[in-house]
Specification:
The chain is an alpha/beta fold and 383 residues long. It has helices at 7-13, 28-40, 52-74, 115-119, 147-150, 165-175, 189-199, 219-230, 255-267, 284-290, 304-311, 327-332, 334-346, 360-378; strands spanning 16-20, 45-49, 85-91, 99-102, 125-126, 135-136, 157-160, 179-183, 208-213, 236-242, 273-277, 322-325. It contains 14 helices and 12 strands. The strands form 3 sheets. Strands 1-2-3-8-9-10-11-12 form an 8-stranded parallel β-barrel, surrounded by 5 helices. A two-stranded antiparallel ribbon has the order 4-7. Helix 3 links the parallel strand 2 (45-49) and strand 3. The protein is globular and about 60 Å long. The model has no long low-confidence stretch (mean pLDDT 84).
């Protein structure tokens, strides 16, 4: 990878794009396909669950993508497409990103209209499939929670899980990921510190550290305290403003909360880059452009030998440097992923699977859909 295609350069130029596969999303075929499609479309970072199997699946997709990038460029999908950073998400306590829906299907009345099945964006809730399974397909569920309030019989609930700090360091070392994102909330400084102590010995091998935190009373003081705790930091630091967690595909207005939170964090002038998430959708970049909030390119006069140093920005930035897309990005590709799954069902051999790259028509359909989202912020990119 050349310096000019370094993913961190996207932060400096204000067109950083991150795909969030989901901290609880463990459906390996979908993670693999999403990673492949969005990489070929020009994504800068792929964020996956801190699960060795999920990480391995994403890595496999990146390997395949490296051979297809020239074809993708010829087709006009991401003229500067490169291998993105592979990031894992960790949490310092209970967090909506780290949960699964559950219910006992035996308690469902026969005459229920099954609104939970209809509203699930991941198609994780099924009834009476060919294998006679009913309930939540755990590896597909990413914990959005929309099925909980809509259940007319109040039998759907969520179960949270928390990563054990002692397991974090070996995971980072063994998988060789490029970046780590820590999910935290206001008031959890002690919990964050314990997790950071487990990660800190291995931070030097990471290219980027992201901290994701939703809004709350005392947010800015909390973020300053986190910065004081981890400073000095050689890795690039990104503050992810989680405006409306896992709600990006609901409607147009959901992007407003994350934009406002981004403005709030920018105004605090905390060292590091600011990237939006939570409520991001097809209207987010247009909103940022209209408000003049997207970071402008300031790398035109930077020499290649000084580029690496300049990317490690210890200073506060004055505009949004990038956008992360989660549920919206995943749902956007769902028509292709469903077709791919349907083809697998028709196969006579249970051991044979259809990978996205095996069906070139579906592959480029997926890349085209992914590019329709990635290109919105990449239009900020210099020629």
């Amino acid at each position: 990878m050349t310096d000019l295609l370094n993913p961190l350069l996207s932060l400096k130029q204000g067109h950083w794009f991150k795909l969030i596969c989901g901290a609880s999303f463990q459906h390996l075929p979908a993670v693999r396909s999403l990673t492949l499609a969005y990489t070929l479309a020009g994504a800068d970072c792929i964020d996956v669950a801190a699960d060795p199997a999920v990480i391995a699946s994403a890595r496999e997709a990146l390997t395949v993508a490296s051979t297809l990038i020239p074809d993708s460029r010829k087709l006009g999908y991401g003229k500067n497409a490169k291998l993105p950073y592979l990031m894992v998400s960790l949490n310092d306590g209970e967090d909506p990103h780290f949960r699964k829906a559950e219910f006992n299907p035996a308690l469902c009345p026969p005459n229920c209209t099954r609104p939970c099945e209809k509203i699930c964006p991941a198609q994780a809730i099924v009834f009476n499939q060919q294998d006679n399974f009913s309930g939540v397909t755990s590896d597909k569920c990413y914990g959005c929670g929309r099925c909980v309030p809509i259940c007319p019989y109040d039998i759907v609930y969520t179960s949270s899980y928390v990563s054990t700090p002692g397991a974090i360091a070996p995971l980072v070392l063994s998988t060789g990921v490029d970046a780590v994102e820590i999910h935290t909330q206001v008031g959890r400084l002690a919990e964050f510190k314990r997790l950071w102590q487990a990660i800190e010995p291995h931070v030097e091998q990471l290219k980027l550290i992201a901290i994701s935190c939703p809004d709350g009373e005392g947010l800015i003081d909390y973020l300053h305290a986190l910065h004081d705790l981890i400073a000095p930091l050689e890795s690039t630091l990104v503050w992810q403003t989680d405006g409306r967690p896992m709600s990006g595909d609901i409607g147009d207005g959901t992007t407003v909360a994350t934009v406002k939170l981004g403005q709030k964090v920018l105004a605090a002038k905390i060292p590091g880059y600011v990237q939006l998430a939570g409520g991001t959708n097809s209207y987010t970049v247009a909103k940022l452009k209209a408000m003049g909030l997207l970071r402008k390119d300031d790398t035109k006069n930077i020499s290649l030998q000084n580029l690496s140093t300049s990317l490690q920005s210890p200073f506060p930035v004055s505009a949004i440097s990038g956008v992360a897309y989660g549920s919206y990005a995943r749902v956007l590709l769902s028509p292709v992923l469903e077709q791919l799954e349907a083809k697998e069902v028709k196969l006579t051999s249970a051991t044979t699977t259809v990978r996205l790259e095996d069906d070139k028509e579906l592959l480029w359909q997926a890349v085209n859909l992914a590019h329709s989202l990635v290109s919105q912020i990449k239009s900020q990119q210099i020629s």
